[in-house]
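Input record (one chain):
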Amino acid sequence: MATDITTAALEQPRPQIGTRDKSVGWYSPTLESITDAQRDLLENYSKIPSDRVIPHILEVRDEAWEIHPYPCIGQLRFIDLSLMRSPSYPLVLSRLQAGASFLDLGCCFAQDLRKLVHDGAPAHNLYGAELKAEFIELGYKLFLDKETFGAKFMQADIFDTEGELKRLEGKMDMCQIGLFLHLFDYAGQVKACERIVSLMKPEKGALIIGQQIGKVDAGAVAVAATREIFKHNVGSFEKMWEEVGEKTGSKWEVRAILDEGLGIGEEKRKWDEVSSKRLVFEVERMS
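The corresponding structure, as predicted from the sequence alone:
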């Protein structure tokens, strides 16, 4: 009988990303602490009382979970200020203060745009594009700044060449793509990167910064019966950008590493492959 029970348990289908079941591994029910930078942003930019910061984050997260129950929501990645950890963050700030433009593509709650403004960047040259308009509204709710935040937001699909992003073509100096490219298979990532190149100014120094889930041994990973994504290592990511450069008549320098961020080092992605890592990158146009 014990064997039958064990076999039955093993045969239970694994929960799929997209379920609103809060017992899944990618939903963290509590938040014990936040970083000093996160607290500074929410207390001093958003003016949220200290004792309300964490409850406020969890309340907004649970509202977001009902809309789009992805790991980035369940694991509270929308408060992760990843851009400030980029080696080029001081350069990004100085270029913005000198009048450059910046697009946060797949911005979700646009926490990094708020951090830029809090650190002294002018908001008028900041743009956020997000497929789900609800996330833009939830960003306003999280940061309490709908009447004061001057960045320009748009609901947009990276693959819609006639959509809202069309007005940004050839105008962006810098772009962030955080937790975005890994949503697609290899061909989809190449197509997305070609589109991103079209949004950038066609000149040396155009800068793309981001992070995504990678893998020690690059390859396709099935995430549903009819859908797969592609996880890169540094070598495959460099090769992809060579291909993108050939397709777009441009050349790009890739600076990338695999590390154990996004909770991997703390074993917070138990549902994911053990070989998964975080891929952090900067891609700069050379010609």
